Amino acid sequence: MYCGSHNATTSAWGKLTLSKATKLPKMNISNWELGVVLPITEESDFPTPYQRPAPRYRPGQEAWTQDMDY
Question: Would you kindly state one Gene Ontology biological process term found in this protein's UniProt entry (predicted)?
Fold first, then answer.
């Protein structure tokens, strides 16, 4: 489980630019934020939008990927 800011601004994520001196890419970050990742175990009471532990794939079942067409 992730606990932290969900700030999607350029300040938070940075901006990729080209250095005028070296002509190489550089990342400009003007803000540092902290996020914490907590493990979710079978004993955890945190609600999740999925079944824990995840069920095993059945024979012939294709693993999900974000590129699948439905």
Answer: DNA repair
pTM: 0.34
Q: Which residues contact 15 (CB under 8 A, 6 or more apart)?
A: 27, 28
Instruction: Give domain limits for the chain.
Output: 2-37
Residue pLDDT, tens place only, 2-61: 777 777 778 777 889 999 999 999 988 877 777 788 888 878 787 777 777 778 889 988
Do residues 3 and 39 make contact, with C-beta atoms less than 8 angstroms apart? no
Give the separation between CA 55 and CA 70, rounded to whole angstroms: 21
